[in-house]
TrEMBL record:
Gene name as annotated: dnaJ
GO cellular component, one term: cytoplasm
Source taxon at top rank: Bacteria
Keywords: Chaperone, Cytoplasm, DNA replication, Metal-binding, Repeat, Stress response, Zinc, Zinc-finger
Protein name in the entry: Chaperone protein DnaJ
């Protein structure tokens, strides 16, 4: 233990790191050196064990405090054999450190356990970007997934011949080993069988006994109509293969919906900003607007329409997932002030201004009302 590397250096974390920072550093290192990602690499396997040992100590506030004060000497006192009896209820299946490790680490790296305690292959997460119109109508997407599949050479058995597998001699089939560290009994996945409880007598040369090999798999994914940005879709059994007798993990598809140049979405409703010429808003008009489903709709704009007024088209929005309901489409009006006027246009506007005369308050009530309040403000001072 005297020559053992500093636990913080092993994780690549600073001594003052928070619990969240330690966990993040641990996950990054564990993913880098996990045996499933480095098959046959003994150096990576040893590094992986060191990472687990370091995190087992530093994630526990009491053990971390002892380590910060005394270093590795805080845990000297003999190392128990794998599978020996311990104290404090930390035995296999006792709901102790091993179970906590399974819940946190298994979900990240593979070897995940289902609700009934059954081991499965690793889950995979991919992101799919959709256009807004694809999210509206639903679409089938073809995605390429980097994964691990059942080894073709050994058909997933991990064995080069018919000798098959045998009970792991290190953990005696438990898939876990326990080690005494000072006053603590720490439980970890077995370094020999990586938690499976069995080892292959004559490992397959292609997969090195894991029963799986890396491969790019193409899948067809049905994205339902009305899906929202950030939605996660689960495809059961489409994750990484887990080897002989171990069911595959799941594939999780994270949906990202790109912005649109015309439409904006809020829940099931769609918004479209439509600029109107000043004359259209003043005199009233009828306009044709696009609808998210690819059709067009006509909207009547009454005379005197102001910027910010909204017109609703019922049932022209998105469908609501797992429901027959539909959202609406809202046309938001913006009255545009004319620019780059010709001489004649300026003359006409000046005539309009003069013609309004005393009727300004009637033609522009909001404008007149505001400046009336301004006069009252200054008069009051």
């Amino acid at each position: 233990m005297a020559t053992q590397a500093d636990y913080y250096e092993v994780l690549g974390a600073a001594r003052g790191s928070s619990d969240a920072e330690l966990k993040k550093a641990y996950r990054k290192k564990a993913m880098q050196y996990h045996p499933d990602r480095n098959p046959g690499d003994e150096t990576a396997e040893q590094k992986f064990k060191e990472i687990n040992e370091a995190y087992d100590v530093l994630k526990d506030p009491q053990k971390r405090a002892a380590y910060d004060q005394y270093g590795h000497a805080a845990f000297e006192g003999g190392m128990g054999g794998g599978g020996g009896a311990g104290f404090g209820g930390f035995g296999a299946g006792a709901g102790g450190l091993g179970d906590i490790f399974d819940q946190m680490f298994g979900d990240m790296m593979g070897g995940r356990r289902s609700g009934g305690g059954r081991r499965t292959g690793a889950d995979i997460q991919v992101e799919v970007e959709l256009t807004l119109t694809e999210a509206y109508s639903g679409v089938q997407k073809s995605i390429d997934v980097q994964t691990r599949v059942s080894c073709e050479s050994c058909h997933g058995s991990g064995s080069a011949d018919t000798s098959g597998s045998q009970t792991c001699a290190t953990c005696h089939g438990a898939g876990k080993v326990r080690a005494q560290q000072g006053f603590f009994l720490v439980e970890r996945p077995c370094p020999t069988c990586h938690g499976s409880g069995r080892t292959v007598r004559n490992p397959c040369k292609t997969c090195h006994g894991s029963g799986t090999e890396a491969k790019t798999k193409t899948l067809q994914v049905d994205i339902p109509a009305g899906v929202e940005d950030g939605t996660r879709i689960r495809m059961s059994g489409q994750g990484e293969a887990g080897g002989e007798g171990v069911p595959p993990g799941d594939l999780y598809i994270h949906v990202s919906v790109a912005s649109h140049q015309i439409f904006q979405r809020e829940g099931a409703n769609v918004y479209c900003r439509v600029p109107l010429r000043m004359t259209q808003a003043a005199l009233g008009t009828e306009i044709e607007v696009p609808v998210i489903d690819g059709t067009r709709s006509r909207v009547r704009i009454p005379a005197g329409t102001q910027t910010g007024e909204t017109f609703r088209l019922r049932g022209k929005g998105f469908s609501v997932l797992r429901s027959t309901a539909r959202g609406d489409m809202y046309i938001q009006v913006s009255v545009e002030t004319p620019q780059h006027l010709s001489k004649r246009q300026k003359e006409l506007l000046e005539e309009f201004e003069q013609e309004a005369g005393e009727d300004h308050a009637k033609a522009s009530p909001e404008n007149s009302g505001f400046f009336a309040k301004v006069r009252d403000f200054f008069d009051g001072r």
